[in-house]
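chain below, 255 aa
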Amino acid sequence: MFLGIDVGNTRLKWALYEQGRPGARILAQGAEFLEHIDKLADGPWRELPEPTRMLGCCVAGDSVTLRVVEQMDELWAVTPQWVHASSAEAGLTNGYDHPTRLGADRWVAMIGARHHMLTRGPARPLIVAMVGTAVTVEAIDAQGQFLGGLILPGHGIMLRALESGTAGLHVPTGEVRRFPTNTSDALTSGGTYAIAGAVQRMVQHLREHCGAEPCCYMTGGAGWKMAPAMTVPVELVESLIFDGLLEIAHHRTPV
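prediction:
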């Protein structure tokens, strides 16, 4: 059995599969906020069958990775493996100036997105937008070359920055409106359209660069909030990082 782990800036998400290959049947899954990682071995992981392989990606730092490994060591003998970006893997070529400095979650999500696209049709240029605590927008050509990407603050960070830097503004519970007529709606709409604009601009750049209409996938905890605000076709795919972990595991020789 195969355990995939995705450690973001806010939550750890995990999924246990029958095998480490694309399309494998999922047996169990869950998520924990980072402050609750130390309860995994005594909680949701205690009754799981022992995995024979584990592959994960972590953007929360080495100390968080160590806490995850400690929880695994309490239960299982499986050797943890963590994905780091490289010059090429699983059909994707890394165009970053320093390939190993690319975030592991971005790399894995792109591999998952390209696999998702190729199982549904011919290769096309591809945009991968990951909307979470931070937002990343990646551009990949039809040959699988990662051309580059954007990083910008997530909606919550934008609102907190405005609250701390502007007198009289507070984090709102507003709605997204085309023409906001109150401060809460103005803040919520501004953050949403800022993210939408970044995605739409990258779609335009990739279309001009490749001479073809890109496919656009959106993932991340806040992706569902963003999709209605988009003016370009976007497909929501919640599982891109886990799809990527399965694809990488399939291409790697088991330990």
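The two ends are 13 Å apart (CA to CA). The chain has two domains: 2-82, 88-244.
thats it, cya
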